[in-house]
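Hey L., structure's done. Input below.
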Amino acid sequence: MMRKIFKKLFSWFDNSFLEEKYASITSGKEIDWMRVIPFILLHLSCFFVFIVGFSWTAFLVCIFLFAIRMFAITGFYHRYFSHKTFRTSRFVQFLFAIIGATAVQRGPLWWAAHHRGHHMHSDTPEDKHSPREHGFFWSHMGWFLTKSNFVTNTKFIRELIRFPELRIIDRFDILMPLALSISLFVIGYNLNQYEPQLHTNGFQLFIWGFSISTVMLYHATFLVNSVAHQWGKKRYETRDTSRNNFIIAILTFGEGWHNNHHHYPGSARQGFYWWEIDLTYYVLKFLAMIGVIWDVRTVSENIRESKKIEIPHQ
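Output:
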């Protein structure tokens, strides 16, 4: 009995246990409650903000960690690992794989494999998180809490699995957010001891820097799957229900130009026009200028102007 409990607990840290266990489960909506518990606890921990209080130090750390991890997800997990819209060095690839993993959205291989599957079957019954097929709540966060969606489909990411460091990150993806959590607590504790004028401490920095920042990051990211496939403007005739949504574009550093993205997924720039704010692309452009990334692909004018939905004149 104790061995079984220990194995379940250890599976939180080593995904290979559940990858093997759930390998034969390819469909269905059975919830993996052992994985749901930490997800719920993380949300509940945000209420400790009423105990730990506010400080500008903790607030700024919260915003910084939201921003850097959002960029790691949008710029690298999405536009690089999933769509290969630019090239970079193996070190930079590894660095942003680590940063992205601290967002508690699994590792880059799992993320890219599921996203490529989404584009292949967008808004069909095979789409794992289509609001049209499965409902709003399911597309927002229900889908990734199931046993059937835990396993990484490696056939979608054959060029990525050749990197052993990426496989290790995926296997032990929970260790990165755990390390971030401990680091925040230790930093906050030491700031309280040696820089008391900053008015923070270990618990406060953990709640603001990890719990609140991560939950904000969660739901901003999830809105792309749920809201951006239901509400907004549809510029292009695509085979799915993708929409351009300005508010989501601001929250997610450019991911809200989702109809643009489904029209041409191969572009590192998702805000196709100058007035479509795309913070992720601006940072990628800067990284290209200083040589950190290169061969950045963008949308051509011909593709940008093609397949637009004509609005009838009144």
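The longest helix spans residues 56-82. The chain has a mean pLDDT of 93.

-- N.
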